[in-house]
Design brief:
Elements lengths: L2 E2 L6 E5 L7 E2 L12 E9 L5 E5 L7
Antiparallel strand pairs: 1-2, 2-4, 3-4, 4-5
Bound molecules: zinc ion (ZN).
Length: about 60
């Protein structure tokens, strides 16, 4: 299943962020285990360098 770059439409490669996992949470909540999500997966475009991030637990942003 190939993923295409939203900027240049080239094939994107799944990547790993160093210092993984980076955690992300909504700006208006306290950072706790309940509110934070990892970033996974992460893709890099091998043509233009664009990086596409997804949160692992999208429900925490609803
Ligand atoms: Zn691209």
């Amino acid at each position: 299943m190939d993923k295409n770059c939203s900027k240049c439409n080239s094939i994107m490669v799944e990547a790993v962020i160093d210092s993984f996992p980076i955690r992300i949470y909504k700006a208006d909540v306290k950072p706790t285990a309940e509110t934070m999500s990892s970033i996974n997966p992460c893709y890099v475009c091998s043509n233009c360098g664009y990086i596409d991030f997804y949160v692992e637990n999208v429900d925490k942003f609803k």
